[in-house]
Design goal:
Blueprint lengths: L4 E2 L9 E2 L4 H22 L5 H8 L3 H29 L1 H20 L4 H29 L2 H33 L5 H6 L1 H15 L15 H24 L3 H26 L14 H17 L1 H13 L4 H29 L2 H23 L7 H27 L7 H29 L10 H29 L21
Antiparallel strand pairs: 1-2
Helix pairs in contact: 1-5, 1-6, 1-8, 3-4, 3-5, 3-9, 3-16, 4-5, 4-8, 6-13, 9-10, 9-16, 11-15, 11-16, 11-17, 12-13, 12-17, 13-15, 14-15, 14-17, 15-16, 16-17
Length: 505
């Protein structure tokens, strides 16, 4: 539980806190085990997509759903699950989420067809969105002062490490168990982790936060409107290319936009009735917060989709192994891990400029990668040629990722920081889903192999052209994100306001 300030005199006038007990750090380890599993599953599956395509005879829209379905339901669950944790206790919300995630992983692993794998991934994302908010909430409950900052820093390191581990781990598992069925172990690997995490969570997580706040009723109608609106937008984006962009795709997207407008109106009405809205309308009274939320959505739409593009190019187009595909994106992960460890220090020195530099580096890195894909022949492309651009993008991502939420949340009042953080992180996940849907439509829309049996050379060059178009869109989204950064405040007090959890990839 939250420690109380020491009564001892302090010459600085600031409260002092007793050191967190050993049990708090053990609880943190359990929390971060589940957190790590959820983040790894956002990237590990990228290298498995070509194998899934072959094994289940999956079409292009299925591959997009495997990524987008996870991200979308993850994002949709974040805000209501946080509210449920406040009402009923974060311990059991975390445990239920872990158990559901583990069960969904098993279902993905035994999938007999493309429908099964989509359902499994949607359930995985839902479960991840249920238990991940509890991690930040427990850190707030278990730690104070400098120890809370240390705990969040460890959490940030887990984010960086997970991005490095995901693609490589997926490649190693498929290499070990074979291209045909190795993809199933990408999901089975979660079973021992999930089971052990649930057992230790029951033993080590405190239950003292239960009965915290049951005064406000859940806005389930708001959840329905938000979910329906986003699904109505996402389904046509994913299925449109496969089905030929018929009239229903445009009408459904229009209905989705209307659903989001109704959601916004309902949030105002629900608030005026005394309810606790999922997305408090007062947040958007701050113009900088509005642009910051758009920034989070656009940035994640741009950068998370590059793994989708490169994995399909390297395996589907160039016939490389899953491990080789994982090694291709390793420079991005390394750049992210190195520079994210320094981002807080540079944010304190440079203020908003650290985000400007980060977004600029991502834009340059993706721009360089696009230029190389567009102008170098398929036979001449290699890991080493693409390495500089991918590393530069990763370095920029490292600078940008950790301080991003803090700068956006700083645009609202301290009392609104928790709600604002939830909205921003939901925008990140929804952005990832929409980004993959758009990029997938662009990539698969240009895969025209002509008549007859295409040669390996034709396949390689066709995939390369599609990947170049997809990477150009990712770079364009990065440019938009770069411009939106300037809507954020130039400086914030990084350690003064309530601590916001680092952004999860």
């Amino acid at each position: 539980m939250t420690q109380t300030p020491s009564a001892a005199a302090n010459p600085t006038g600031r409260p002092t806190f007793a050191p967190a007990p050993r049990s708090s750090w053990l609880a943190l380890a359990v929390l971060l085990a589940g957190f790590f599993m959820a983040l790894v599953d956002a990237t590990i599956v990228n290298v498995a997509l070509p194998s899934i395509r072959t094994s289940l005879n999956a079409n292009e829209s299925t591959l997009s759903w495997i990524i987008s379905g996870y991200a979308l339901t993850f994002g949709l669950a974040l805000i209501p699950s946080g509210r449920l944790g406040d009402r009923f206790g974060h311990k059991w919300v975390y445990i239920i989420g872990i158990v559901l995630f583990t069960a969904a992983s098993a279902y993905c692993g035994i999938a007999a067809n493309d429908f099964d794998i989509i359902i499994g991934r949607v359930l995985q994302g839902l479960a991840g969105g249920i238990f991940v908010p509890a991690v930040g909430s427990f850190i707030q409950l278990l730690f104070n002062g400098k120890e809370r900052g240390k705990a969040f820093a460890i959490m940030g390191s887990v984010i960086g490490i997970s991005s490095a581990v995901g693609q490589i781990a997926g490649g190693l598992l498929i290499q070990a168990f074979g291209e045909a069925e190795g993809w199933r172990w990408v999901f089975f690997v979660n079973l021992p982790i999930g089971i052990l995490t649930a057992i230790f969570a029951i033993r080590l997580l405190p239950a003292g936060d239960a009965h915290a706040d049951r005064s406000n009723r859940m806005d389930w109608f708001g959840v329905l409107l938000l979910s329906a609106g986003l699904v109505a937008i996402l389904v046509p984006l994913i299925q449109g290319q496969q089905d030929g962009w018929h009239a229903w795709t445009w009408w459904t997207m229009a209905a989705g936009v209307a659903g989001l407008v109704l959601f916004a109106i309902w949030q105002v009405v629900f608030t005026k009735r005394g309810g606790s809205a999922l997305v408090p309308p007062r947040l958007f009274h701050h113009l900088s917060f509005t642009f910051g939320t758009i920034l989070a959505l656009v940035y994640f739409a741009g950068f998370t989709s590059i793994f989708f593009t490169l994995s399909l190019l390297w395996q589907g187009g160039f016939a490389h192994t899953a491990l080789e595909s994982g090694l291709l994106t390793l420079p991005f992960a390394v750049g992210t891990a190195i520079f994210s460890s320094q981002s807080s220090k540079w944010a304190a020195k440079l203020g908003r400029s650290v985000l400007v530099y980060g977004a600029a580096l991502v834009t340059i890195g993706l721009g360089v990668t696009w230029f190389l894909l567009a102008n170098i022949g398929a036979a001449d492309l290699s890991n080493w040629i693409l390495l500089p651009g991918i590393f530069i993008a990763g370095a920029g991502n490292g600078f940008f990722l950790a301080p991003n939420v803090q700068f956006i949340v700083a645009t609202v009042e301290n009392s609104e920081a928790g709600a604002a953080s939830g909205v921003v992180q939901t925008a990140q996940r929804v952005g990832s889903a929409i980004g993959v849907a758009i990029i997938g439509s662009i990539l698969f829309g240009t895969l025209n192999f002509g008549k007859g049996q295409p040669t390996p050379e034709i396949i390689a060059n066709t995939f390369k052209a599609g990947a170049a178009n997809a990477m150009l869109m990712s770079a364009a989204l990065a440019v938009v994100a770069f411009l939106l950064v300037f809507a954020l405040p130039k400086r914030i007090q990084l350690h003064g306001a309530p601590t916001a959890a680092p952004a999860a990839e």
